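Morning F.,

Quick status update on the modeling queue. The single chain you submitted on Monday has been processed. Sequence for confirmation:
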Amino acid sequence: QVQLVESGGGLVRPGGSLTLSCEASGITLSMAAMVMGWYRQAPGKERELVAANVGGIITYGESVQGRFTISTDNGANTMYLQMNGLKLEDTAVYYCRVQTFRGSDYWGQGTQVTVSS
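Structure tokens below.
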């Protein structure tokens, strides 16, 4: 059974930093993952792409470009989202997502990030 477990969310002041983790089990990210990504959903808004790694090609949402970094530790079978320069509008529930070469699509349960002064 594939599971993605996020952690690292919390409350942070504007300008602060957080690192989100997404630990995978039941799947080896380095072998099976075609796309690894982070999404977020703010209250009253649709879920949006934050960052994605598509076969080594990394893209970022326009609003986080230059502030967020997506990465993977194959040894830990974990993907990360380093978030710097956090803004009030970054407040959302953040989800990790893995799409495999076989066509499966997995989501984590989400972790809350709140940016507030």
